[in-house]
Write a structure and sequence with these properties.
Length: 174
C-alpha cells in the first residue's frame, strides 16, 4: 500500500524545543519519579506506624528533598539554558521534512539527508505536536506546521504503516 507523501516546513521556536526537551527528560528519568513516590510512601507509613517528632521526620527525609531539587534542576533548568544557548548561536533556518513510504527526507540549511523508517524508535502525539524518538535524539513536529486535517491524517497513516517502534497516536483520529 502506497501512502501519499507529506512535506512540512518547520521553523521551531525556543519554547517548542524547550517543552519537547522537558518531555524527553521526564521520560528518561521516570524511574526516579517512581522510586521517589515509593520512598515517600515508605516514609509516610513508617511515620504513622512509629510516630516521631516532626523534626526527626524532617531530618530523615531531608536528603530526599536534596535529590528532588537536583532532579528538578536536571529536568527543567538544564534544558532551558541549553535550548537558550543553541538559539543564541544559531540562525535557525526553516527545515523541510518529507515523510514518504521510502523514508524521511530532510532539507536543512541547504544540506539534504535521508533517514530510513527504522531509525524511528517511537512516535508520541500530544495535542500540540509529535515527539519522534530517533536513536539517542528526538525530533519535534509542531502541529501548527501541519496545514489541515487531511495532511494530519496522512502523516498518521505514514507513521502507522512504517514505524516499527511504539506509536502513541490519537486512535479516534488515526
Amino acid at each position: 500500500m502506497t501512502n501519499a507523501p507529506v512535506s512540512l516546513t518547520i521553523q521551531l521556536t525556543q519554547d517548542e524545543v524547550y517543552r519537547a526537551s522537558v518531555r524527553v527528560m521526564i521520560r528518561k528519568l521516570r524511574i526516579f519519579i517512581f522510586l521517589g513516590v515509593i520512598f515517600l510512601l515508605i516514609v509516610g507509613v513508617a511515620f504513622f506506624a512509629h510516630p516521631t517528632s516532626a523534626g526527626e521526620l524532617l531530618t530523615s527525609i531531608l536528603p530526599f528533598f536534596y535529590l528532588l531539587f537536583a532532579f528538578c534542576i536536571a529536568v527543567f533548568v538544564v534544558p532551558y539554558f541549553s535550548t537558550r544557548a543553541s538559539f543564541k548561536k544559531d540562525d535557525r533556518q526553516p527545515t523541510e521534512i518529507t515523510f514518504s513510504d521510502d523514508g524521511i527526507d530532510i532539507l536543512a540549511s541547504g544540506e539534504s539527508s535521508h533517514a530510513d523508517w527504522e531509525v524511528i524508535l517511537n512516535v508520541k502525539e500530544s495535542p500540540g505536536d509529535f515527539l519522534i524518538s530517533v536513536s539517542k535524539s528526538f525530533w519535534t513536529i509542531p502541529k501548527r506546521t501541519i496545514p489541515d486535517e487531511i495532511i494530519l491524517a496522512r502523516l498518521r497513516k505514514l507513521f502507522i504503516a512504517n514505524v516499527q517502534g511504539k506509536l502513541y497516536l490519537y486512535q479516534d483520529q488515526a
